[in-house]
């Protein structure tokens, strides 16, 4: 990890990570003990190791440059929709991607809401289009810079209690200087987003969610905190299958689609009943449902393919696409030498479904035998793009090799240096970076990095 900030210029490695200066005089063993006392109070304690990673920080200027490049990538996504709206698209591979998008739209069709009303074409390329961005991309800090392996551009993202909890715990344990605590706490960023959405007027935000005990435990403290920290905005959650209580109708209300279409499709009848009751009372969705397709990894392949991406991309958008996206293609469209390279070099590629969730249907070539990889590719290539009432589009992506960082981990053996990769995933809400979710990423991928993640407290320092 970099130890001395070089703040002269932003570069493609942003966000730059630095070790947090440790002012606490507490002995390492006591820090670990205090952490282990706090961890069980979270809702995710059983899903992470009980050792403590020392905090890191990034300069606000570095984070701002990172944000600007991600906004350019989002605008590139919107340019695809704009080209489809204005029928300025091309034939050939463009048309193949457009046909696949129809399948993605069918899969993303919500009960009651449907596909949503298309946005006016001009709004997709307007200067304030970034306000439509809501998501938390999965980003590996690679050897050549951050690489976006999934965008998660939709309101159905979850798990934000984890980076918020680890931020708050680290702030208590390590007592960083006050300026490190001014910004960057994830749930404070959520509160700011909803306050901006309200634009000074009292409003209600109606969250809809699957009926699940674990989700209830996770979201109860989230909504309590948001309601305490967002003046004039009340957050109300509705679980599918439960009756909707009497609601006030004297102020603006918004629907917040807080769950994925994957969860909705597993319980469509109850969600349909819930939405039928709520929709007459709300002004609309916090993010238009028509944009929910941007969550699909199909767009990563569409933009990664030079023969298919929109000709209207600006220089800034092209730079973002070419530097932030790993090589990504639709498996069924691969032919010739490109397909042979994927077959031969399995350690360099990942196969994933374009519209899977929670790391389902993700296959790392490096974890399979040569024959198993070849068989998997052939099997998926031969399957139809719509199967079993779901989108069945398969994406091949170049595996991102993480850049090596030297982090400090507090263990029973004391503080030890751990050389590891890092993923740094920003919460982009209303077109602004509101916080960072950072975790340890092994150099050789395995599913433990998804199901038993180890988080790194990540602060943002303003003024530098």
From TrEMBL:
Q: What is this protein called?
A: Glutathionylspermidine synthase pre-ATP-grasp-like domain-containing protein
